[in-house]
Automatic annotation (TrEMBL):
Keywords recorded for this protein, A-Z: Transferase
The organism's taxonomic lineage, starting at the top: Bacteria, Pseudomonadati, Pseudomonadota, Alphaproteobacteria, Rhodobacterales
Coiled coil: none
Residue ranges annotated for the Flavin reductase like domain, each copy included: 405-548
UniProt KW Isomerase keyword: no
UniProt xrefs under PANTHER family: SUCCINATE--HYDROXYMETHYLGLUTARATE COA-TRANSFERASE (PTHR48207)
InterPro entries, alphabetized: CoA-transferase_III_domain, CoA-Trfase_fam_III, CoA-Trfase_III_dom3_sf, CoA-Trfase_III_dom_1_sf, Flavin_Rdtase-like_dom, Split_barrel_FMN-bd
SUPFAM superfamilies in the cross-refs: CoA-transferase family III (CaiB/BaiF), FMN-binding split barrel
A Pfam match: CoA_transf_3
Gene Ontology molecular-function annotations: CoA-transferase activity; FMN binding; oxidoreductase activity, acting on the CH-NH group of donors, NAD or NADP as acceptor
SMART domains reported in the protein's UniProt record: Flavin_Reduct
The species this protein was found in: Ruegeria pomeroyi
UniProt name for this protein: CoA transferase
Length: 703
């Protein structure tokens, strides 16, 4: 009936009536968050009926209930500046915008795909139109309005349907709308897959006229190959016999005899072996050439039996089925077994549920979920104030998150979430990796063999807790399968009720963004909703042992003392880097004075220049291959006005050509790249080559 396969996809649905709502119904049924954007009077289908006797206010039209189950409703006046601004804010958080207006409507509202994509490049913009959009092919009928009957007539379907050429017949259901909506649901998913891979969405449209031509594909190749203009086929088939509706004593039945083997079975059941051995009828082509005679013989036999008798004789033997009315369908055991009649709960107490046609897609391993109720007009207007979780960060927030991502070179983390029943779950991981600042994303790896893998793979939210060097016991506890993890740990509920570890150095509350298969692991990517950072040293784990990742001052001091090395730092002030200017005009990173060549000496030296330096973690350790001297470079921050002989440089425009030392120039170029992602590695090697130990892997690096 429904699944959660599309959970996490947000669709803004501006469409009306049938084609667009049918498309978004498929998406909502399988977990997408579909938000209907409605005007003051709502979707036209709210007023189309029919209505039940217990609905005197005509609030719940059957047309609307069936197509809009499980969706949300927000009222916006897109002609007002306030409504346009609100829609833009929503579109910045959306994966898909769907509409079925005529071309140019959204452009005139200043809400075109191009303008929305400027703020949200990943946006997929889906348009269902009668005759397509000029962006993909300008039709001479582009401005014509269209409904189902127009699409059926112009697309050839009605010309092929009916008893004879004088009686073209419209197909009962609104297939001109429905098929276009189905095609668009595929187009949306295809474009979403591209957007996930490239970060760029696109405009996709389908014309109802085009969809009907695609549905009637047989008429096209017949005309090409034979010159025939396909006409009404009644209830038969132009190339096959017996194929169509045949009379029964109490109704009609359908037969579809295509293969010769089925013809042999049918003639045996009819007790007409002579038909089975007649050379005129032994092949598909022969039966087609004698269709009139065959259909008369088969009709004469079926008319002597009831539908029930024919079901007993032919069911499971040849392609056969009785002609069902909706009353027959509701009593059919197949329909019950496949749960094709869904019960939608009424949102008002004391009212019986509605019965609608269920979604026909079934996915093995996905438990069917009941279909939720449709929305009242404007029921979710309050979402306008809470849908900013996925909005782009402003510059201050980006800077704050970048600093939080860069606070830790690596470290032990505990991932936490809640099961559907609210039970907290968690396990220990060795690291996380920042992926992006716009949108703010991080990733963690889940071993498929991990006890909690399925829980985290399905969770809508999770948290990353970075442990301090005093939390080794917590790391060990969450690395086990103990059922006492949370009872033995001090924690508190945070955003979205996520369990957050007390006294962790940092916590990142995330909404699930994407899950990617990676061999024996799953990569879980989360969108950071909020975060908190405190001072301290993170807990590290390497080769089976814990270690501190803070400043190892005594080791650094000993290394520089024994080898006449130097302490230096890449110091950031916002998005600027502090560099020293040498007498010959070249640039270098700040270094400790020779007379006080220690970590503390470096900090004192900066203080004497009116600067406050805070060293976070090691950034590079390299040894001069000729002299043996060590250069130990830290990552840190600095505040204060640049004194004489020093200058702040914009990180995006570092004058690397003025950095005389090859090693420092290469190191600063690496810093530029890593800063964009908010994740820093530690270089170890000589002045010419070595390894960058990053959070997620070890990358070979040559100066």
């Amino acid at each position: 009936m429904s699944s959660t396969l599309l959970k996490g996809i947000r669709v803004l649905d501006l469409s009306r009536m049938l084609s667009g709502p049918y498309c978004s119904m498929f998406l909502a049924d399988h977990g997408a968050e579909v938000i209907k954007i409605e005007g003051g009077s709502g979707d036209t289908s709210r007023n189309n009926g029919p209505y039940r006797a217990d609905d005197p206010g005509h609030d719940w039209a059957g047309y609307f209930v069936s197509l809009n189950r499980g969706k949300k409703s927000i009222r916006l006046d897109l002609k007002s500046p306030e409504g346009k601004a609100a829609f833009r804010r929503l579109a910045a958080t959306a994966d898909v915008v769907l509409e079925n207006f005529r071309p140019g409507v959204m452009d005139r509202l200043e809400l075109s795909y191009e303008s929305l994509a400027e703020a949200n490049p990943r946006l997929v913009y889906a348009a269902i139109r009668g005759f397509g959009d000029p962006r993909t092919g300008a039709s001479p009928y582009a401005d014509w309005p269209s409904y189902d009957v127009v699409a059926q007539a112009m697309g050839g379907l009605m010309a092929m349907t009916g008893p004879d050429a004088d009686t073209p017949t419209k197909v009962g259901p609104g297939i001109g709308d429905i098929f276009a909506g189905m095609m668009m649901s595929f187009g949306i998913l295809a474009a979403l897959r591209e957007a996930e891979a490239t970060g760029k969405g696109r405009f996709v449209d389908v014309a109802m006229y085009d969809a009907m031509i695609s549905m009637c594909e047989r008429m096209v190749y017949l005309h090409d190959m034979t010159g025939q203009v396909a006409g009404p086929e009644g209830n038969g088939h132009p190339l096959l016999a017996p194929f169509g509706l045949f009379p029964a004593a109490d109704g009609q039945v359908a037969l579809g005899i295509v293969d010769d083997s089925f013809w042999q079975k049918l003639t045996a059941i009819m007790n007409r072996p002579d038909l089975g051995t007649d050379a005129r009828f032994s092949t598909r082509a022969g039966r087609s050439a004698h269709a009139g005679e065959i259909n008369r013989v088969v009709s004469g036999w079926t008319a002597t039996h009831s539908k029930a008798d024919l079901t007993g004789l032919l069911g499971g033997q040849v392609p056969f089925g009785p002609l069902n009315t909706v009353a027959d369908i509701t009593a059919d055991p197949h329909v019950a077994a496949r749960q094709m009649l869904a019960r939608i709960p009424h949102p008002e107490p004391g009212h019986a549920p509605w019965t609608v046609a269920a979604n026909p897609l079934r996915f093995a391993g996905q438990a069917a979920r009941p279909l939720p109720a449709p929305p009242r007009l404007g029921e979710h207007d309050a979402l306008l104030d809470t849908l900013n979780d996925r909005a782009p960060l402003d510059e201050d927030a980006r800077r704050d998150l970048r600093r939080a991502f860069g606070q830790f070179a690596t470290g032990v983390t505990v991932l936490t979430t809640r099961q559907e029943d609210g039970t907290p779950r968690g396990f220990t991981a060795n690291s996380f990796t920042s992926v992006s600042l716009d949108p703010p994303l991080l990733l963690v790896c889940l071993a498929k063999t991990a006890h909690s893998c399925d829980v985290f793979a399905q969770a809508p939210h999770f948290a990353v807790n970075i442990l301090s060097d005093s939390q080794k016991e917590i790391s060990g506890l969450f690395a086990s399968r103990s059922t006492e993890k949370f009872s033995g740990t001090h924690w508190h509920p945070g955003s979205h009720d996520l369990p957050l570890i007390n006294d962790a150095l940092a916590t990142f509350a995330c909404a699930r963004h994407k899950l990617v298969d990676a061999g024996d692991h799953l990569i879980l990517i989360g969108r950071v909703l909020n975060h908190a950072v405190t001072e301290g040293k993170p807990l590290g784990f390497h080769n089976g042992a814990y270690f501190d990742l803070g400043l190892e001052n005594r080791l650094a001091d000993a290394a520089t003392k024994d080898t006449n090395g130097v302490i230096a730092a890449v110091l950031a002030e916002g998005e600027r880097i502090l560099l020293e200017e040498t007498p010959d005009g070249t640039l270098t990173v700040p270094k400790s004075p020779a007379r006080d060549n220690t970590v503390a000496g470096f900090v004192r030296h900066m203080d004497s220049r009116g600067l406050t330096a805070r060293l976070d973690h090691l950034y590079a350790v390299f040894q001069n291959s000729q002299t043996g001297a060590h250069s130990i470079v830290y990552h840190g921050t600095v505040s204060g006005a640049a004194p004489e002989g020093m200058r702040y440089h914009d990180l995006a425009a570092l004058p690397l050509d003025q950095v005389a030392n090859d090693t420092e120039r290469s190191m600063l170029a690496r810093y530029q790249r890593e800063y964009r992602h908010g994740s820093f590695g530690i270089y170890h090697g000589t002045e010419r080559s070595g390894i960058v130990h990053s959070i997620a892997d070890h990358t070979e690096y040559t100066v």
